[in-house]
Design brief:
Layout lengths: L3 H37 L8 H31 L1
Helix pairs in contact: 1-2
Amino acid sequence: MNTEPLEYAISHAPASWTPILWIAAILTVTSIASSVWLKLSPSDNLYDIRELVARVCILASFIAITLNFVIGLFAWLVVR
């Protein structure tokens, strides 16, 4: 069984944690800013781009944090 891809993934997993957390933090701040901006100046439009930005950023942040958790869990289980 060829374990080189697995060993490569484990050895490089911690290097991906920091960028993923930074991306999640930036997306979270963007979603909070969009939500506050929408709250301070509401519009009567059925679809508002600020609401779309906030929702997409929240979803992307959740996906990034979940991906980071899965990478860490996988690395921890294999190394253990």
